[in-house]
């Protein structure tokens, strides 16, 4: 990167020509070949409770600030809490059956700076490690970059949550460091690992996702022929 300097000889950030900010997400339906994302409502509580019920020991909620849920009413109360906050939550549903599969949200939404985060990700067992799981993340990225004009897309997780860290790296996020003692969650310390994707990195990453999601990359049993990392390398996507 070539640094610019001002008249005083001080290094300054590169100019962002014509920047007027990004648009705030408004809950637009995001539809893919395998999943559809719609704004989360109380209507989704029974279906989501069933989806999360396959996690018998509650392991999927260990690193989340909420859950596991004892009943539909508890999940419904949590959805109410979600709805009064600044974040935009989506329910992820199967595009063919309309079965509820999980949730995800946009948070830390800062249109003025062009920065937005994806988080509050909770996948039912039926969604985990599927094409739909990746597609849901791609749909949210594409909406943020292509439709809303964001410059920075963030992912943060408990630094001890190894599956979430691996997921961020697989999806092409760059690790930026760990904030120590960032939060107290369920009475325990949380160090938070930070990751990001920038708008300049998105076109190549978008092409890699398209190649991985293509039907030609899966056999008759739905197993991938080549991993996403292959296509990221092929498209020149380098994350650290």
From TrEMBL:
GO terms for cellular component: cytoplasm. This is GNAT family N-acetyltransferase. InterPro entries: Acyl_CoA_acyltransferase (IPR016181), GNAT_dom (IPR000182), Ribosomal_N-acetyltransferase (IPR051908). GO terms for molecular function: protein N-terminal-serine acetyltransferase activity; protein-N-terminal-alanine acetyltransferase activity. It comes from Algicella marina. PROSITE patterns: GNAT (PS51186). The keyword Translocase does not apply. The keyword Transferase applies. Gene3D superfamilies: 3.40.630.30. Keywords: Transferase. Residues 35-201 form the N-acetyltransferase domain.
């Amino acid at each position: 990167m070539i640094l610019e300097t001002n008249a005083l000889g001080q290094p300054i950030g590169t100019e962002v020509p014509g920047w007027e900010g990004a648009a705030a997400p408004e809950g637009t339906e995001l539809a893919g070949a395998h999943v559809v994302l719609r704004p989360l409502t109380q209507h989704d509580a029974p279906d989501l409770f069933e989806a999360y019920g396959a996690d018998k020991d509650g392991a999927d909620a260990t690193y989340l600030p909420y859950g596991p849920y004892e009943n539909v009413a508890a999940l419904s109360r949590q959805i109410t809490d979600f709805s009064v906050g600044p974040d935009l939550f989506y329910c992820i549903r199967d595009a063919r059956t309309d079965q509820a599969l999980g949730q995800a949200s946009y948070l830390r939404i800062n249109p003025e700076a062009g920065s937005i985060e994806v988080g509050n990700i909770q996948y039912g067992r039926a969604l985990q490690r599927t094409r739909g799981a990746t597609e849901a993340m791609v749909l949210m990225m594409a909406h943020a970059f292509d439709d809303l004009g964001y410059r920075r897309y963030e992912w943060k997780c408990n630094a001890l949550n190894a599956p979430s860290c691996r997921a961020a790296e697989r999806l092409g996020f760059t690790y930026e460091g760990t904030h120590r003692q960032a939060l107290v969650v369920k009475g325990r310390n949380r160090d938070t690992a930070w990751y990001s994707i920038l708008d300049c990195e998105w076109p190549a990453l978008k092409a890699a996702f398209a190649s991985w999601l293509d039907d030609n990359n899966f056999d008759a049993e739905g197993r991938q022929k080549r991993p996403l990392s292959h296509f990221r390398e092929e498209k020149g996507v380098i994350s650290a």
